């Protein structure tokens, strides 16, 4: 049964206001000693969209968010933390699964998107249901097929841990843990998941040169792919129908589930291609297990329809050699330092 997310957002907003009121009246919380953090902007990237005035980044807030990201207590069965679907080894996607496993032996509707460069995203989830990095976390935390908890249940478990209680007091200056604080802490951590150290990035900085196959693939990418998977983020954050037929069992119509507009039928958010060689499976429902299958879809299998993206009406014409060249370029988007960064890993 779907939860009424509109009312949940209203409740979270009211809870945040009440928390601020309580904190102004309570002088016994303690002295706040926060270390401000400035979001690192890689060379060539646009200005981030992350709202630092609403949720200021701090070393302590980021670390609290990291602990929560790997915390099993956030799920109803205490076995499905955020990291169970968003694995660092898979660029914080689900490693070699079509759709993620949730509580009570369930499966999610969609493939878990990678958590890469989220500070530049205007929308979140495959259908763009949420417009802030904090509020998007409400869905997995409370979803029946994901973590299955309630905020009162999460708060009860966290407040039983003195370490968490002290950390929330320090970061948010309140005497009790509130729902909005939980998702804001998670947002602070996930905002720091920045990937910009791939072979491609080094090529753009003039530090390396591409071999002939990679260079040919880059030119093919600019010709056929860059209009949607726009560099340097390798997504334009738009919603498009890329010609995939509907899975008859899932019956997922994409953004239309949110907008209720027939013009949005079968439209899904364009995913980033960064670290795509690490993040199998592919597409919104994880139906493809390889990059080759994805490219072959655009070469041979695009399905016509009223909402098909106009750029794909003729598919993408590539020879087998060009397909190999394009795959060679896509491999240059792999950032191995991102999946081994201890700052993003499970706390010791």
Walk me through the structure:
The structure is a single chain. With about 350 residues, the chain is an all-alpha fold. The protein has two domains: about 5-195, Cytochrome c-like domain (Cytochrome Bc1 Complex, Chain D, domain 2); about 200-330, Orthogonal Bundle (Cytochrome Bc1 Complex, Chain D, domain 2), CATH 1.10.760. Helices cover about 35% and strands about 0% of the residues. The chain has eleven helices and two strands; from the N terminus they run ααααααααβαβαα. A two-stranded antiparallel sheet has the order 1-2. Helix 2 (about 60-70) crosses helix 6 (about 180-190) and helix 8 (about 210-225) crosses helix 11 (about 320-330). It is globular. The two termini are about 35 Å apart. The model is unreliable at about 1-5 and about 20-30 (pLDDT under 50).
Topology of this structure?
Elements: H1 5-25, H2 59-69, H3 138-142, H4 151-159, H5 162-172, H6 179-191, H7 199-204, H8 212-224, E1 239-240, H9 256-259, E2 268-269, H10 291-301, H11 320-331
Antiparallel strand pairs: 1-2
């Amino acid at each position: 049964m779907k939860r009424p997310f509109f009312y949940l957002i209203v409740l979270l907003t009211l809870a945040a206001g009440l928390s601020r009121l309580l904190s102004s009246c309570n002088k016994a919380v303690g002295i706040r000693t926060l270390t401000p953090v400035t979001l690192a902007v890689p060379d060539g990237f646009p200005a981030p969209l992350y709202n630092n005035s609403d949720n200021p980044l701090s070393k302590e807030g980021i670390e609290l968010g990291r602990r929560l990201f790997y915390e099993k207590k956030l799920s109803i069965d205490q076995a499905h933390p955020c990291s169970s679907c968003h694995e660092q080894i898979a660029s914080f996607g689900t490693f070699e699964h079509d759709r993620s496993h949730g509580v009570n032996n369930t499966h999610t509707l969609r493939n878990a998107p990678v958590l890469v460069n989220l500070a530049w995203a205007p929308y979140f989830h495959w259908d763009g249901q949420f417009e802030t990095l904090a509020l998007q976390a409400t869905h997995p935390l409370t979803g029946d097929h994901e973590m299955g908890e309630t905020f009162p249940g999460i708060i009860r478990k966290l407040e039983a841990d003195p370490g968490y209680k002290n950390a929330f007091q320090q970061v948010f200056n309140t005497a009790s843990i509130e729902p909005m604080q939980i998702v804001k802490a998670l947002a602070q951590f996930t905002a720091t998941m920045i990937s910009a150290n791939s072979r491609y990035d080094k090529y753009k900085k003039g530090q390396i040169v591409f071999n002939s196959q990679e260079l040919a693939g880059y030119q093919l990418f600019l010709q056929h792919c860059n209009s949607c998977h726009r560099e340097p983020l390798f997504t334009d954050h738009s919603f498009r129908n890329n010609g995939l037929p509907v899975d008859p069992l899932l019956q997922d119509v994409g953004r239309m589930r949110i907008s209720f507009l027939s013009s949005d039928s079968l439209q899904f958010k364009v995913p980033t291609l960064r670290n795509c060689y690490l993040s199998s499976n592919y597409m919104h429902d994880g139906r493809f297990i390889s990059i080759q299958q994805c490219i072959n879809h655009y070469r041979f299998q695009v399905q016509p329809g009223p909402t098909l993206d106009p750029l794909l009406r003729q598919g993408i014409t590539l020879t087998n050699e060009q397909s190999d060249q394009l795959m060679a370029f896509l491999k240059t988007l792999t950032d191995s330092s991102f999946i081994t960064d201890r700052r993003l890993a499970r706390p010791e």
